[in-house]
Write a structure and sequence with these properties.
Largest sheet of chain A: none
Shape of chain A: globular
Number of domains of chain A: 2
Number of strands of chain A: 0
CATH class of the largest domain in chain A: Mainly Alpha
Number of helices of chain A: 10
Radius of gyration of chain A: 20 Å
Oligomer: homodimer
Helix content of chain A: 55-70%
Mean pLDDT of chain A: 95
Order of helices and strands of chain A: HHHHHHHHHH
Distance between the termini of chain A: 51 Å
CATH topology of the largest domain in chain A: Tetracycline Repressor, domain 2
DNA sequence: CAAAAACCAGACCACTTGGTCAACATTTTT
DNA sequence: AAAAATGTTGACCAAGTGGTCTGGTTTTTG
């Protein structure tokens, strides 16, 4: 069992400092490509100190992962059949795009983790993830059955929403190269509108004026 | 200049052997996570031999990258305004999905490379890529101007096509987890139809019967 | 204020890494 | 068949790795 000493303002502060540095480093160089020493330098602490708070490099990595996942909630999580699919999906896409804009590192780390086989995601998380998926697929299927949106496999719809929105975080280097400059806030707005229109129209929905 | 000794059946054969092993290893563990020793083992050769053909680990990695990129061509590359956008886009999406199914390692390596900042892609490739993009964006824009497809930023449309199709290669671990089993040929067919419908309908096009 | 708990950090270690070198074997060319 | 080019390989190395240990300092607590 991991010891969890209560409170400790210093502990709190230092752990946060280390987590922030680790998130940046892991996002940029991956797990193997990041050394504990480098994280320590970025956090302005000796290496031993990092290992003191997080017992191992992997422990720190998992802590980073969990912190990221805890921030990925959305109104879509609790949507029901009663809700308007156009409204709910548009909101969900907007949420995911905002996360890609504001927390690109998290998305990158998650992507790296999945590409490498997701070996560090706990069974607890995986189980949660599967449950969430089944529940959301259920709602979408009901929308389909009621003829509110086009017939399709709800799994693929969700995959497509994720991939497009996360693309703006994960592949930012490529996007910058191709567009000639880094995407700014206005670009993100436009990309979001573009994606909302594509997905909603692609599902046979019309875009709520709020997102047009 | 890199010496390129003519012919040499042995050379050809060994290099190919090493490239294949390296592709598999890099896709699974990334650049930093793969040791030259491991690649050598997989290729059934001593480490020194690998370094003999490719002067460094990075050299080998770049060779792998170039080999991958050389296979990513499609009919879309040479499409013109005269062509039917529905037909061309549906074909392009199908092509990209087939690559995700048949060559997932390549897609993964490319994704890892981009996430990590694309530092190993040569300027030559980047320039080619930008040119390709501008040319394709031009064609799409003309389709828009002629009212053949919905008004939108062509850049984002292409990003969305890429991200969705590559998602099936890069995030296969997550998909398998969520769907409960690895995607088979039939699943890929269905996913392709689903994506073609989403994108085309999202652009205001109707799906050619061939892809419905 | 003293003891206990928490925190800090240099020295150190076993191990892996990419890469070199020199000697030897094989193939190709003349 | 001699010479030149190409291929093969074990021994070796310097640098970097995650992680431990030990002894100290600071902070918290009774």
């Amino acid at each position: 069992m991991t010891k969890e000493p209560k409170a400790g303002a210093i502990r709190q502060h230092n752990k946060q400092r280390i987590l922030a540095a680790a998130e940046e480093a892991f996002a940029e160089h991956g797990f193997k490509g990041t050394s504990v020493q480098k994280i320590a330098d970025m956090a302005g602490l000796p290496k031993t100190n990092v290992l003191y708070y997080f017992n191992s490099k992997q422990g720190l990595y998992i802590a980073v992962l969990e912190q990221i996942l805890s921030l990925w909630n959305s109104a879509f999580d609790s949507a029901t059949v009663e809700d308007d699919p156009a409204e709910v999906l548009a909101q969900y896409i907007s949420d995911k795009m905002r996360i890609s804009q504001e927390k690109p590192q998290g998305s990158k780390i998650f992507a790296l983790e999945i590409i490498n086989g997701a070996h560090n995601l706990t069974d607890f998380f995986k189980h949660n993830h599967v449950s969430w998926m089944q529940s959301r697929v259920g709602v979408i299927q009901q929308w389909i059955d009621q003829g509110k949106i086009d017939t399709q496999d709800p799994y693929y719809l969700l995959f497509h929403i994720w991939s497009c929105s996360q693309h703006y975080a994960d592949f930012s280097a490529q996007i910058t190269e191709l567009k000639g400059s880094k995407m700014n806030a206005q670009d993100f707005e436009q990309a979001t509108r573009s994606l909302v229109q594509l997905i909603l129209k692609g599902c046979g929905l019309s875009v709520p004026s709020k997102y047009a």
